[in-house]
Task: inverse folding
């Protein structure tokens, strides 16, 4: 059932914008092929192991030229697919994305880069593109060479029978052990014209026995200049995907790719009618996907919003929020439904940022838990009851300034640790494949 | 059985030192009262809960004036006892330490500071000291007021019947759920004269359902100037306690206190015979205690030494080592006996330090696991067999410089998370005590 999120940006802007920025957007069903001019396909290649039957190799292709933008992990250890995709985006725009699960093609050296390039060149040949017009994403275990013996022969087939009906298959092919596919799409109406943005996503550390890998593919039929697209994607990602953490481990493969092919006939740029609405709609897609990554962890039981306010600078607000969201003891307490503000304030204190203990206020799920660094009158039973809920907000006011930051995160459960104890099965399979000793 | 660790510093120094620095040291039995002129006592006060029978309040007292030094948590949220002890050490030297378990007296506001001061002034009165000559340490849950109703009436009794036989009782009184007391002592021989250094310690995050709190008390009968003592304690702690991490959470209460009372008649200073040996012996005590903290976690199954080499700077070596030692996914893999070098290199990569993936070498338990950022020929079964051991070394060479750093750490187990899920019992008791709502 579509969720209608009608919003008139114009009424919330300054007078100068009311005439300029008009439009509404609403969430709709669908994924990467919901916008005009995008087709897709997916296959089951047995990448993780030959007997696997699930979809694990996918292609998304724009029938029209695009502008495109991407953001990638800042881990200095970057997967081969990330290196190749970054290189292609520096040289121009991409019109196709080939993605796989089952292997991250990371820490695979020059061979891994050659494999990633080969995927792109085979796909390019099939689609009549230049290799640099193809991006490549992989997700799975790090350090094992890709089983090209099971991938390469299928690439031509992947590029045939492309269809706008197969967006969901792409979403299926890229997930590892997410509990469900993650598709988010919106329809934007501007002056009677329609623009759509569709996406699929997979992530994160919690739910894969592999790495913490986030991949998000976004396809829109708006026409947006490359420079403008780069700006809003960078900004959007910084406010969404970069504000989630599950276990604090940043993948070698994190990738967000956005393509805009103009198939809607609607040209958008800063200053044109509907631009603000489009940016908001894109932000909505990214934010929704980011939240789903956090919420969908199989071994996760809580979705916690950590809100820091009153920080002396933006950077400090961020560091404090991240410190709290990554503290093993804080997250363990959330798992236990224990509203332990003492652990929260201790994590605030070791963030290394300017903090005055006697000024710190903490609310948990809307109730005051700490004022001026000490306990409040709130009955601990009331606090405890609130944190039995799956979702709640932790608000931390440093009372030292006006800067804010928000991080979305989870608890830490014994099951997470148990789930991540061993990737023995992967290495065993890789030995059988002759890819490792 | 004493462990004899004979070492002649002279032979390892440059020629100029051979004549100057002579002496040997060996490990001996005992704790804080093993050196001359130190006496102690401990009581069971039911601090955690009235019915508790274990020792939980302790006193160590030097019958002679001392020079003393202390290092404390750098968490900007500091327990009341830390604030008071720091203040007293700034004003002069301390001759007595009153310590308790069962409550951290942290995030307790002005009342907490008043409580800490009161402990010091009552003890001072009993012993004929100035209040500023008394230091105070607490360990336990954060945020709950100290149950002074059970502590204050016992302080006079604590200061009576002091004895050199009760060092072990102090070690017992400060532990929370450490599996055993931690006492380390050494005897140093310099030119036929004897100096002893005794210590007890408790820690760390893993083993307490409370905070990650490390407390170490060190008592020596050497005569050392305050300035010299400050220097070697600061340096010693930076190379030992500051290089351990269990769960990455820095306590609000971490404290290392060292007293030197000269009762041996041996005066030591930089340049005097035996100085180097004394410094090494002190370092040995601190290092042993730091290792025991890491090894003794009840829910810990591994003791891992993370060695970073070849870093472009000292600060970067430190950050890379700490990043690896704190990664949830890396630590989980250790728990599973999984030699997952891919996760290790990913943590190296997100440390934010200068790293060139293609130069990174990783050895696990002495076997090459990664060379130049990719897998080696080492059979994965061999690697796996090595990490079944309880202790092993992970060596990471960045091959970008010559700086090194070492961190001692543990695995992350499901049991750790389970153990730290809830401090409900503490809060319930505090409610009964009328100390919280």
Result:
């Amino acid at each position: 059932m579509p969720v209608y999120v009608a919003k008139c940006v114009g009424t919330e802007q300054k007078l100068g914008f009311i005439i300029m920025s008009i439009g509404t957007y609403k969430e709709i069903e669908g994924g990467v092929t919901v916008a005009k001019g995008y087709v897709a396909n997916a296959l089951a290649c047995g990448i993780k192991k030959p007997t696997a039957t699930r979809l694990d190799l996918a292609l998304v292709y724009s029938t029209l030229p695009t502008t495109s933008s991407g953001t990638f992990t800042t881990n200095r250890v970057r997967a081969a697919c990330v290196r190749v995709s970054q290189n292609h985006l520096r040289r121009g725009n991409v019109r196709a994305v080939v993605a796989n699960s089952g292997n991250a093609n990371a820490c695979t050296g020059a061979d891994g880069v050659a494999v990633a390039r080969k995927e792109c060149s085979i796909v390019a040949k099939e689609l009549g593109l230049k290799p640099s017009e193809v991006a490549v994403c992989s997700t799975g275990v790090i350090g094992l060479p890709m089983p090209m013996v099971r991938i390469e022969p299928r690439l031509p087939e992947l590029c045939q029978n492309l269809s706008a009906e197969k967006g969901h298959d792409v979403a299926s092919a890229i997930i590892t052990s997410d509990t469900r596919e993650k598709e988010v799409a919106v329809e934007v109406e501007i002056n009677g014209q329609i623009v759509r943005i569709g996406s699929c996503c997979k992530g994160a550390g919690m739910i894969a026995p592999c790495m913490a890998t986030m991949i998000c593919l976004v396809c829109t039929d708006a026409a947006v200049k490359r420079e403008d697209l780069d700006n809003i994607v960078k900004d959007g990602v910084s406010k969404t995907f970069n504000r989630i953490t599950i276990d604090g481990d940043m993948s070698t493969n994190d990738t967000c790719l956005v393509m805009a092919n103009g198939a809607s006939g609607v040209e958008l740029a800063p200053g044109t009618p509907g631009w603000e609405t489009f940016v908001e709609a894109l932000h909505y897609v990214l934010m929704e996907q980011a939240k789903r990554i956090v919420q969908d962890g199989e071994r996760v039981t809580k979705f916690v919003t950590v809100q820091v306010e009153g920080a002396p600078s933006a950077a400090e607000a961020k560091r404090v929020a991240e410190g709290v969201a990554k503290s093993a003891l804080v997250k363990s307490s959330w798992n236990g439904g224990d509203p332990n503000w003492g652990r929260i304030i201790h994590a605030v204190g070791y963030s290394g940022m300017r903090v005055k203990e006697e000024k710190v206020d903490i609310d948990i799920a809307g109730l005051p838990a700490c004022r001026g660094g000490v306990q409040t009158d709130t009955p601990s039973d009331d606090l405890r009851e609130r944190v039995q809920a799956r979702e709640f907000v932790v608000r931390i006011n440093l009372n030292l300034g006006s800067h804010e930051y928000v991080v979305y995160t989870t608890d830490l459960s014994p099951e997470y640790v148990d789930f991540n104890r061993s990737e023995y099965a992967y290495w065993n399979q890789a030995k059988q494949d002759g890819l490792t000793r």
